Amino acid sequence: MKPTERVALTMRELDRLKVVQAVVDRMLKPGLAAQRLQLTVRQVERLVARYKQSGARGVGHTSRGRPGNRKLDEAIAGRALTLIRECYADFGSTLACEKLRECHGLTLSKETVRHLMTEAGLWIPRAQRPPKIHQPRNRRSCLGELIQIDGSDHRWFEDRAPACTLLVFIDDATSRLMTLHFTATESTFSYFEATRKYIEAYGKPVALYSNRASVFSCNEYARQGRHPIRTGLVRAQRRYAMRQQQSSEGVRGTGQSDPAGSARQGVALAQDRHVGGGEWLCAPLHR
């Protein structure tokens, strides 16, 4: 080894070099060196022979600097990158890997394709992507201008009652809790009941917001050009009125009040033009 040549060693190999050097200088016996390095005496003797022949390089790993046995062939890697640049530059690594296998007969793992695309600048790992900047939304300026509604499943009464859902109506401008309604499950009809309580107490809100679009939306009517939120609510409210009417008919003649009263109440709730005046149900209720 040349005196000016630099050799890269790990900390473990550097400690091994010091012990081997002590054995060469006859300051340490091979048996004690083997105990210190947790090797056999024959292994220590081979290390000493390699150190005398190659210097510090003989103590390091003999495969350092050589290409790995499982390294991808450069011709295959170049062909894969060429195909990706020409045909799949805007694909993700997983989809590009599938297309290379199906259309071009190149069978590579998705991690290999991801590594090739990352080195070529065609793919940016998620950890290296710049964070997305989301502008904060300003609060509404007036009470009742936007009411956020949501439900939370919890054992609110601990072991004294079954688990239930709490529907909460929160004013966006003031963060004030406007309506709290306990119900068995978070359903459209439960929201109808909570909405009626809110309207009776505070009047018609300007807009409602909910992050549960599946409760309110009706996609089949949206494709026909009609308002999905309003149509979905009106249909569900009419079903609610029909249920009330059917239940009332079952107890007709038992001294109950007029069974059509509940049905009329449900229909009145379904007709959004007559609830407090105005079309508040047309407000955006989904994200």
Q: Would you spell out the secondary-structure blueprint of this structure?
A:
Elements: H1 11-24, H2 30-37, H3 41-54, H4 74-87, H5 93-104, H6 110-119, E1 147-154, E2 164-171, E3 177-183, H7 188-202, E4 208-210, H8 213-216, H9 219-223, H10 228-250, H11 260-270
Parallel strand pairs: 1-4
Antiparallel strand pairs: 1-2, 2-3
Helix pairs in contact: 1-2, 1-3, 2-3, 5-6, 10-11
Summarize the structure in short:
The protein has 287 residues and is of the alpha+beta class.
Written overview of the protein:
The protein has 287 residues and is α+β, with helices and mostly antiparallel strands. The chain folds into three domains: 11-58; 74-126; 147-251 and 258-282, Nucleotidyltransferase, domain 5, CATH 3.30.420. The chain has eleven helices and four strands, in the order ααααααβββαβαααα. A four-stranded mixed beta sheet has the order 3-2-1-4, covered by helices on one side. The radius of gyration is 37 Å and the shape is elongated. The model is unreliable at 214-222, 227-232 and 251-287 (pLDDT under 50).
